[in-house]
Write a structure and sequence with these properties.
This protein is 71% helix and 4% strand. With 318 residues, it is mainly α. The two termini are 27 Å apart. It folds into two domains: 254 residues, no CATH class; 53 residues. The chain is globular, with a radius of gyration of 23 Å. Helix 6 packs parallel to helix 9 and helix 9 crosses helix 10. The chain has eleven helices and two strands, in the order H-H-H-H-H-H-H-H-E-E-H-H-H. The relative contact order is 0.12. The longest helix has 35 residues. A two-stranded antiparallel sheet has the order 1-2.
């Protein structure tokens, strides 16, 4: 199995496009850092002595909005309850909103680049099986005394390892660039999280690691779906197109449905953002962490049953 994975890994890095993907991740992080540093230089951050009064006005607006929409929209009700609780906690404990940039605030901003990681992992997942059929090299793989399941599993593990590599580069580089450009915060900066109806303070460094890990769940599920489409239909373009559409639009579509229909909680993208159970509110009232984990396992199993079932039985003699 290890040799198969090494072989698949070598195939990926023999493609010029792979080095382009790695280079783009680096350029994106550097670009975000450059823009933020320029904005900071152009508009230096200033302390706001009136922040409590401003938060108080925002609280009044949030409470009024909660009274208006809370009865008809459970999702918005939970959102504004969170916003109100955090603002009240800030005022009570004298925690002013952040104005200065520092390494951890930059790492959080760079987290938006995870969508590009998802894009690149989908491209690899969609082509890793389909390309073998289009290039005619699948026969060379299957003549070996190795089961088809091991061959397909090695390809899937390679996709996951590639995703881990990109996420590691993104997190490490963003921390390094943030440290160089913005430095460490002058004082400890807590993260105010809203979980189980309460506001809690968390270590920002640990919080960011958790956010990056939880954000990767979305990538894993969509990449698994792209891998399944590639194995079942042998069509890399279909796998890339459909997977990218769902990656960028799946969450939006799910939120629109979740605001109206409770059954939207059974959709894949209603369950991929596990961070809402540690800091936020779920898309449908009543959803739990265990429910989302079970749904993810069900989808994960369905994708692999289809991928491995079809791949094992496919006739490639023609």
């Amino acid at each position: 199995m290890v040799k198969l994975i090494i072989n698949e890994w070598a195939k990926i890095f023999r493609r010029p496009g792979t080095l382009v993907m790695l280079g783009l991740i680096v350029l994106i992080v550097l670009a975000i850092g450059g823009v933020n540093k320029y904005e900071e230089h152009k508009n230096p951050p200033k302390e706001n002595p009136q922040w409590k009064q401003e938060l108080g006005k925002q609280l009044e607006t949030d409470r009024a909005t909660l009274n208006e929409v809370g009865k008809n929209n459970a999702g918005l009700k939970q959102y504004y309850e969170r916003e109100i609780a955090i603002k009240e906690y800030q005022i009570k404990h004298d925690i002013a909103p952040e104005t200065d940039s520092h390494v951890w605030s930059f790492v959080r901003q760079a987290k938006d680049a995870i969508s590009f990681v998802g894009l690149f992992v989908i491209i690899i997942a969609a082509g890793i099986v389909a390309s073998e059929f289009s290039w005619g090299t699948i026969k060379l793989l299957l003549v070996r005394p190795i089961s088809r399941s091991k061959i397909l599993l090695s390809k899937y593990i390679t996709v996951l390892l590639f995703g881990v590599l990109l996420l590691t580069i993104l997190y490490t580089l963003s921390a390094l660039v943030g440290l160089i450009l913005f430095g460490l915060p002058d004082n400890p900066v807590p993260h105010l999280a809203y979980a189980n109806g309460e506001v809690v303070e968390r270590n920002l460094f640990v919080q960011l690691i958790g956010e990056y890990l939880l954000a990767s769940v979305d990538i894993v599920m969509v990449a698994t779906m792209a891998f399944m489409i590639s194995a079942v239909f042998r069509n890399g373009s279909l796998a890339i197109g459909l997977s990218l559409f769902l990656l960028f639009m799946g969450g939006t579509i799910t939120m629109l449905l979740a605001s109206r229909f409770e059954w939207a909680k059974y959709f894949l993208f209603a369950n991929t953002d596990l961070n809402v159970y540690f800091d936020g509110v779920p898309p449908v009232e009543g959803m739990t962490l265990m429910f989302s984990i079970v749904m993810l396992i069900v989808y994960f199993a369905i994708f692999h049953v289809l991928a491995f079932g079809v791949f094992r039985k496919r006739d490639v003699a023609a």
